[in-house]
Amino acid sequence: MSPRIEIHWPTEADERLRAGVHRMIHSVVELGGAVGWLTPPDRAETDRWLDEVLDRARAGDAALALAILDGEVAAGGLWRRGATDVFRHQAEVQKVMAHPMARGLGLGRLVLEALIDDARTNGIEVLILGARGNNHGAIELYERLGFREWGRLPNAIEVGDERYDDVKMFLELGRPPHVILRGSPPDGPGSSPRRRRP
To answer: Strand, helix or coil at 121?
Structure first.
Protein backbone atom coordinates (compact mmCIF):
# COMPACT_ATOMS: atom_id res chain seq x y z
CA MET A 1 0.00 0.00 0.00
CA SER A 2 1.46 3.36 -1.03
CA PRO A 3 1.78 6.12 1.57
CA ARG A 4 -0.85 8.85 1.75
CA ILE A 5 0.74 12.19 0.79
CA GLU A 6 -1.03 15.56 0.81
CA ILE A 7 0.23 19.10 0.18
CA HIS A 8 -0.86 21.47 2.94
CA TRP A 9 -0.74 25.30 2.63
CA PRO A 10 -0.87 26.58 6.23
CA THR A 11 -1.57 30.18 7.17
CA GLU A 12 -1.92 29.38 10.90
CA ALA A 13 0.02 26.92 13.04
CA ASP A 14 -1.23 24.74 15.87
CA GLU A 15 1.02 22.80 18.24
CA ARG A 16 1.10 19.70 16.04
CA LEU A 17 2.18 21.67 12.97
CA ARG A 18 4.84 23.58 14.91
CA ALA A 19 6.24 20.36 16.34
CA GLY A 20 6.25 18.69 12.91
CA VAL A 21 8.01 21.59 11.20
CA HIS A 22 10.59 21.72 14.00
CA ARG A 23 11.21 17.97 13.81
CA MET A 24 11.75 18.15 10.02
CA ILE A 25 14.09 21.18 10.12
CA HIS A 26 16.08 19.85 13.08
CA SER A 27 16.59 16.43 11.45
CA VAL A 28 17.62 17.90 8.08
CA VAL A 29 20.12 20.34 9.62
CA GLU A 30 21.49 17.67 11.96
CA LEU A 31 22.59 15.70 8.87
CA GLY A 32 24.19 18.79 7.28
CA GLY A 33 21.27 19.79 5.03
CA ALA A 34 21.87 23.05 3.16
CA VAL A 35 18.74 24.89 4.30
CA GLY A 36 20.15 27.98 6.01
CA TRP A 37 21.13 26.79 9.49
CA LEU A 38 24.62 25.55 10.39
CA THR A 39 23.50 23.89 13.63
CA PRO A 40 20.10 22.40 14.42
CA PRO A 41 17.81 25.20 15.59
CA ASP A 42 15.85 24.88 18.80
CA ARG A 43 12.08 24.93 18.90
CA ALA A 44 11.89 28.66 19.75
CA GLU A 45 13.91 29.50 16.64
CA THR A 46 11.84 27.35 14.28
CA ASP A 47 8.65 28.76 15.80
CA ARG A 48 9.88 32.34 15.13
CA TRP A 49 10.78 31.40 11.56
CA LEU A 50 7.40 29.72 11.01
CA ASP A 51 5.47 32.68 12.46
CA GLU A 52 7.29 35.09 10.15
CA VAL A 53 6.61 32.91 7.09
CA LEU A 54 2.93 32.52 7.98
CA ASP A 55 2.57 36.28 8.56
CA ARG A 56 3.87 36.79 5.00
CA ALA A 57 1.59 34.04 3.68
CA ARG A 58 -1.48 35.75 5.15
CA ALA A 59 -0.37 38.99 3.45
CA GLY A 60 -0.01 37.22 0.08
CA ASP A 61 3.76 37.69 0.05
CA ALA A 62 4.74 34.05 0.59
CA ALA A 63 3.39 30.51 0.54
CA LEU A 64 4.55 27.54 2.59
CA ALA A 65 3.96 24.11 1.08
CA LEU A 66 4.21 21.13 3.42
CA ALA A 67 4.05 17.53 2.27
CA ILE A 68 2.11 15.59 4.89
CA LEU A 69 2.93 11.88 4.87
CA ASP A 70 0.49 9.71 6.80
CA GLY A 71 -0.44 12.70 8.95
CA GLU A 72 3.11 13.92 9.69
CA VAL A 73 5.17 16.80 8.21
CA ALA A 74 7.64 15.06 5.89
CA ALA A 75 8.83 17.77 3.47
CA GLY A 76 8.40 21.45 2.79
CA GLY A 77 9.49 24.59 1.07
CA LEU A 78 8.27 28.10 0.37
CA TRP A 79 8.26 30.94 -2.10
CA ARG A 80 8.72 34.49 -0.85
CA ARG A 81 7.80 37.53 -2.96
CA GLY A 82 10.41 40.24 -3.63
CA ALA A 83 10.32 42.88 -0.90
CA THR A 84 10.35 46.07 -2.99
CA ASP A 85 7.96 47.28 -5.68
CA VAL A 86 10.36 46.65 -8.56
CA PHE A 87 10.78 43.00 -7.49
CA ARG A 88 7.22 42.07 -6.47
CA HIS A 89 6.74 40.15 -9.73
CA GLN A 90 9.44 37.67 -8.68
CA ALA A 91 9.78 35.33 -5.74
CA GLU A 92 12.55 33.30 -4.18
CA VAL A 93 12.14 29.59 -3.49
CA GLN A 94 13.60 28.82 -0.08
CA LYS A 95 14.20 25.98 2.37
CA VAL A 96 13.13 23.04 0.21
CA MET A 97 13.76 19.96 2.35
CA ALA A 98 12.54 16.48 3.19
CA HIS A 99 12.81 14.70 6.53
CA PRO A 100 15.60 12.10 6.28
CA MET A 101 13.10 9.29 7.01
CA ALA A 102 11.04 10.37 3.97
CA ARG A 103 13.85 10.58 1.41
CA GLY A 104 13.43 8.68 -1.83
CA LEU A 105 9.67 9.24 -2.04
CA GLY A 106 9.90 12.16 -4.47
CA LEU A 107 8.60 14.64 -1.90
CA GLY A 108 11.12 17.35 -2.85
CA ARG A 109 9.86 17.26 -6.43
CA LEU A 110 6.24 17.21 -5.27
CA VAL A 111 6.78 20.28 -3.06
CA LEU A 112 8.66 22.16 -5.81
CA GLU A 113 5.97 21.44 -8.40
CA ALA A 114 3.33 22.68 -5.96
CA LEU A 115 5.34 25.86 -5.25
CA ILE A 116 5.81 26.54 -8.98
CA ASP A 117 2.08 26.14 -9.70
CA ASP A 118 1.07 28.24 -6.70
CA ALA A 119 3.52 31.04 -7.53
CA ARG A 120 2.24 31.17 -11.12
CA THR A 121 -1.36 31.32 -9.85
CA ASN A 122 -0.37 34.24 -7.59
CA GLY A 123 1.03 36.32 -10.44
CA ILE A 124 4.71 35.56 -9.94
CA GLU A 125 6.56 35.92 -13.25
CA VAL A 126 10.00 34.61 -12.25
CA LEU A 127 11.13 32.24 -9.53
CA ILE A 128 14.72 32.44 -8.31
CA LEU A 129 16.66 30.28 -5.90
CA GLY A 130 20.15 29.67 -4.58
CA ALA A 131 21.81 26.31 -4.01
CA ARG A 132 25.05 25.32 -2.34
CA GLY A 133 27.51 24.29 -5.05
CA ASN A 134 28.03 20.82 -3.60
CA ASN A 135 24.28 20.06 -3.55
CA HIS A 136 24.33 18.35 -6.94
CA GLY A 137 21.16 16.32 -6.38
CA ALA A 138 19.10 19.44 -5.65
CA ILE A 139 20.61 21.32 -8.60
CA GLU A 140 19.73 18.41 -10.92
CA LEU A 141 16.16 18.39 -9.60
CA TYR A 142 15.83 22.13 -10.19
CA GLU A 143 17.13 21.69 -13.73
CA ARG A 144 14.66 18.86 -14.43
CA LEU A 145 11.86 21.24 -13.42
CA GLY A 146 13.10 23.92 -15.84
CA PHE A 147 15.34 26.11 -13.66
CA ARG A 148 18.48 27.43 -15.34
CA GLU A 149 21.66 28.71 -13.78
CA TRP A 150 22.16 32.47 -14.21
CA GLY A 151 25.20 32.96 -12.02
CA ARG A 152 27.62 31.45 -9.58
CA LEU A 153 29.38 33.31 -6.80
CA PRO A 154 32.50 31.26 -6.11
CA ASN A 155 33.15 30.11 -2.55
CA ALA A 156 30.53 32.46 -1.08
CA ILE A 157 28.77 30.08 1.32
CA GLU A 158 30.54 29.58 4.63
CA VAL A 159 30.28 26.27 6.45
CA GLY A 160 32.83 26.44 9.24
CA ASP A 161 36.25 26.70 7.60
CA GLU A 162 34.93 25.47 4.24
CA ARG A 163 33.56 27.63 1.41
CA TYR A 164 31.16 26.55 -1.33
CA ASP A 165 29.83 28.17 -4.50
CA ASP A 166 26.47 29.94 -4.33
CA VAL A 167 24.65 28.73 -7.45
CA LYS A 168 21.87 31.10 -8.59
CA MET A 169 19.02 29.71 -10.72
CA PHE A 170 15.77 31.01 -12.21
CA LEU A 171 12.54 29.78 -13.80
CA GLU A 172 10.32 31.93 -16.03
CA LEU A 173 6.64 31.37 -15.18
CA GLY A 174 5.12 33.59 -17.90
CA ARG A 175 4.36 37.26 -18.27
CA PRO A 176 1.09 39.17 -18.67
CA PRO A 177 0.45 40.15 -22.32
CA HIS A 178 0.88 43.89 -21.63
CA VAL A 179 4.41 43.47 -20.21
CA ILE A 180 7.23 44.79 -22.40
CA LEU A 181 10.56 43.04 -21.90
CA ARG A 182 13.31 45.66 -22.25
CA GLY A 183 16.42 43.82 -21.15
CA SER A 184 19.42 46.19 -20.92
CA PRO A 185 18.99 49.09 -23.36
CA PRO A 186 20.84 52.38 -22.72
CA ASP A 187 17.56 54.32 -22.40
CA GLY A 188 14.44 54.40 -20.23
CA PRO A 189 13.91 55.20 -16.52
CA GLY A 190 17.10 55.05 -14.49
CA SER A 191 19.37 54.65 -17.50
CA SER A 192 22.81 56.14 -17.81
CA PRO A 193 25.09 56.34 -20.86
CA ARG A 194 28.36 54.51 -21.09
CA ARG A 195 31.34 56.65 -20.29
CA ARG A 196 33.78 56.92 -23.14
CA ARG A 197 37.38 56.44 -22.13
CA PRO A 198 39.88 58.95 -23.51
So the answer is: helix
| Among 88, 80, 60, 163, residue whose Cα is nearest residue 129 | 80
Question: Is 0.85 topped by the overall pTM?
Answer: yes
Q: Which residues contact 68 (CB under 8 A, 6 or more apart)?
A: 5, 6, 7, 8, 74
Q: What is the pLDDT of residues 158-193, one digit of tens each?
A: 988 999 999 999 999 999 999 999 898 888 888 888
Taking each continuous run of H as one helix and of E as one strand, the counts in the chain are 4, 7
Q: Compute how many other C-beta atoms are within 10 angstroms of the C-beta atom of residue 175.
A: 12
Specify burial of residue 106 (Cβ count, 10 A radius: 0-12, 13-18, 19+).
middle
Cα-based angle 45, 46, 49 (whole degrees, multiple of 5):
90
Q: What is the tens place of the pLDDT at every residue in 31-77?
A: 988 898 999 999 999 999 999 999 999 999 999 999 999 999 999 99
Give the number of C-alpha atoms closer than 13 A to the C-alpha of residue 99, restricted to the C-beta side: 15
Long-range Cβ contact pairs of 177-180 (< 8 A, separation 24 or more): 179/125
- The closest alpha carbon to 101, from 36, 162, 11, 30, belongs to 30
Residue 9 contacts residue 118 (beta carbons within 8 Å): yes
